[in-house]
Specification:
The structure is a homodimer of 201-residue chains. Chain A is an all-alpha fold and 201 residues long. Chain A has two domains: 56 residues, Arc Repressor Mutant, subunit A, CATH 1.10.10; 136 residues, Orthogonal Bundle (Tetracycline Repressor, domain 2), CATH 1.10.357.10. The first copy, chain A, is 62% helix and 0% strand. Chain A has nine helices and no strands. In chain A, helix 1 packs across helix 2, helix 4 packs parallel to helix 7 and helix 7 crosses helix 8. The longest helix of chain A has 22 residues. Chain A is globular. The N and C termini of chain A lie far apart (41 Å). At the A-B interface, helix 8 and helix 9 of A face helix 8 and helix 9 of B. The first copy, chain A, binds a DNA duplex (30 and 30 nucleotides) through helix 1 and helix 3.
Chain lengths: 201, 201
Amino acid sequence: MSAAAGSRPLRADAERSTARILAAAEEVLAVDANATLERIADAAGLARATVHRRFSSRKALLEALTGVLNERYVCGLEQARVATAPPIAALYRLTELLFELKAGNRAIMELTADPATKMTPMSPEVTAGLELLFRRLREAGEITAPDPAWCCAVYLAIVHEAAQLPTSSPMLGDAAGEVGARADLTYRTVLGALGGGHPHG
Amino acid sequence: MSAAAGSRPLRADAERSTARILAAAEEVLAVDANATLERIADAAGLARATVHRRFSSRKALLEALTGVLNERYVCGLEQARVATAPPIAALYRLTELLFELKAGNRAIMELTADPATKMTPMSPEVTAGLELLFRRLREAGEITAPDPAWCCAVYLAIVHEAAQLPTSSPMLGDAAGEVGARADLTYRTVLGALGGGHPHG
DNA sequence: CCTAAATGCTACACGACAGTATCATTTAAG
DNA sequence: CTTAAATGATACTGTCGTGTAGCATTTAGG
């Protein structure tokens, strides 16, 4: 669990602090990407100095945070059996997991990449997993869009929009609970967007 | 054309300065939403002091910029005859216009709204026009999604993604030029996403 | 219990940026 | 041409956020 395994093992409470800081950062930065370290410290119930003790700089904190997010994506990709399960099932499962893990936080992923390079904030592992999924979807005839990169972009964009959709929307009407309804909507929308044969659910 | 018609008519060169500043701001802020006023001034070929003369504060500049963007949207909605033309044709025309006018700059629109309120940066007029279009699309049976707000969100998200798609993508293969190909892709993707009957082009 | 680690708190240095002011110079417009 | 507006350049102020340091206190862990 430790953020950096390079140094001596941290004490138990210190480890908890890092976890609380990362959680607070995720929560605060999701609302305001330029939030102060002090705001994050407050949300974590800690002093700003402690934040600086666990993370040498703001940049370091952001990188650690994107690391956590990437881990979640990887976890989701594994659980969804993106490489082995029937691709439609994998897509559905992955979508559910993304909403459960609240990994749909697109804004946070773009905090690390500096404005100049515009590099992808997602790890190559995650990108590869997602592209594999959409390649398999295409080979199975579930979608027609030939470019995995485009598929990923559309998928993540729709996940983001579905996550921000107000609970009162008629798009989330029946059946399952909060996350289930959003996942369902995302699933159907993405398949339609990428040329799936299901015109509707 | 003047940003604020409240005061005496500006001299011709001053008016040009404001225009150049707004153009530079649009260009620079599209890359880095937190760019300095000095960077904007440099891009406009003006001194930072001049920026402060034409716009009383950074906030004022941002508001003026979103105003310009909103005007473009309104212009596009009018030209596309969103209220009167056959809805599919209006959607296609509007999409073309958005790419021509480079109005797809989603990031800039979110600069005005402070993180707390999370209000929509688009003017009610634009929102109403877009929702009208999607309501008409639904009534015409072109899409099935019942929530206009969801339709708008998905539409704008896909426009944004299509705008960022690299020119080398196989999704932009044949037929028309740059903007035409992106508009075409957006059009097909959106209809599919919202439950349109066209599984592919 | 005892030691070392971790934290809270305060103060401070440093840099970045917004905004203001002044003056000389250029430029539009009558 | 003549006047007033607009600009460039420079300097200055004030604020905010990051990062550092020191000290007293609390807490984990042997």
